[in-house]
Amino acid sequence: MTAQLSWLDDPMVYRVNALEAHSDHSFYASEKEVINHDSSLKYNLSGKWLFHYADNPMQRIKKFYQLDFNLTSFDNISVPSHIELNDYASNQYINIQYPWSAKVQRCFDKKGSLKNSFSKGEDNSVGEYARYFDLPQSFIGKRTHIIFEGAERAIYLWLNGHFIGYAEDSFAPHEFDLTPYLEDKNNYLAVEVFKYSTAAYLEDQDMFSFFGLFRNVELVAWPDTHLVDLFLHPKLSVQAQEGLLTCDLKFSGDISKQLKCELYDTDNRLINHQTCLIKQKQISIDFGRVSAVKVWDNHHPNLYRVVFKIYDLNRKIEEVVQYEFGFRKIRISENNIVQLNDQRLIINGVNRHEWSAKKGRSISSKEMRKDIQTFRVNYINAVRTCHYMDQDYWYFLCDHYGIYVMAENNLETHGTWVGGHPEENLPGSGKIWRGMALDRAKSNFEWLKNHSSILIWSLGNESYAGDNLMLMDQFYHTHDSERLVHYEGVSRNPIYRSRISDFESGMYMPPDKATEYLQQGPDKPLIFCEYMHSMGNSVGGLGQYISLIQKYPQDCGGFIWDFIDQALYARDEVSGKDVLKYGGDFDDRPNDGAFSGDGLLFADRSPKPAMQEVRYYYQKLDRLNYKHELP
Known about the structure:
By secondary structure, the chain is α+β, with helices and mostly antiparallel strands. 16% of the residues lie in helices and 30% in strands. The chain is built from 9 helices and 35 strands.
């Protein structure tokens, strides 16, 4: 197959040869590797890469992926990082409008095509990455894949001169099989990243517009028999103090192997084990009943652990997989109260962009742990991942620290319908955008489905409503009966209200309007997916919302906008010092100015005065949560 630049213009092409999304479990070659958290079946390709920047597709080096290409003209770049923060392109912050607004006119034809719009776009910057690598000894002879954990906006991949694949969806992992073209030594990897493709229409989030390989890149080796996918189904009976666990497993390769399954309790005691022969590619394991179960919640993030060991015919371990999970139950009661573990759930939440004042969205594990610490100190018990999939490590932290997650799809199309043209909304109801929208829902679900912290799936943000959003809602309800589904945008197109979202949700709904809804016998619980816009000297009206939560049990709280300012350290021309700069400070046009500074924290993670107000009121609700009191 030959790579086609026209894919950038086609909404119906969003992945070519990319493997299907699957669970995010780690796998190891031995039990010792599990203990040390160091898998010989993974190899990190992050670090220094060779790099060439082009202002547009016409100026790129078209055949740099060929084996005989001379790379001496290439610079060095760090992976992960944003291309803009390496001084190759300008920073730009936008809220609703698209980054090319007022500069480039892009028009759909009658068939919904954007022919040549991005493939020949003068503003469509290109990053060309290259590096050589040798296979680790532990990889030789094994099926080998590459995983891009995050790449904005559209990527083409070649290995040793052979085209491997293409992918969009900037915040979902993309996995490709390299095996057919691998050598043991001196493999040449080439990646082309385009700033814009039709995917950009679905990624109109309120944030800085970056591109590049901004998350880790790694190789993974699959043993002869590999556990490809794991779907845990923990069920909880609170009254009986009992849990039930079944697991759906999918294997690849030679399945004539032995499987040992183990279940450990919260004190790491083995409470169930069984052994079986793997006779099919897909099997289910029933661990049965777990008595005296310890439930998972914000105050008690109790985690159990499953372990799966694959043995060859000589009783030698080929692969070990483990996963930690909690027993918890999320539901809506008959009187439309959201309940966790049969008690009313109150959300003390924040919206959180991934952000670093030095590295943009290439956020470090240290910064993530700092955010969790800030949550706990200020009685923040929930997070909405606005408006995309976060780094995988964030969800594991939320599992371990009892943070409730609204896991949002990488979807926002605010600029397509705002301003009085809702009929132009995307993804809308047209089939041309349907595959891309559903693919994002599937990726979000498949990668993250085993995280106990995820209580709610969110279809996306500010993308109006239509048949494609309805089908995304149906996908989640069909594939996951143990969680709820949220989408605020249906409030703008209420003919879909009975078919989209388990919640009533309004963007910055005033307290009097919320009171009116709650007093009329609500048919859906109310949640504030965004409220208390934390810009400047704000959040002073939080007490009015808290009083509603205390008075009406159908009000389950919400998520403050937002957690941290989006601002970047840059040199101040007057003082010569590094200062925090916002939209417009980089001569970016168009931009939405300091609107990126609406967090409870400054971009350096120091708290604003507003955090005191949040801590005061969220502590009140925390006590209500903890005592399980109903008003």
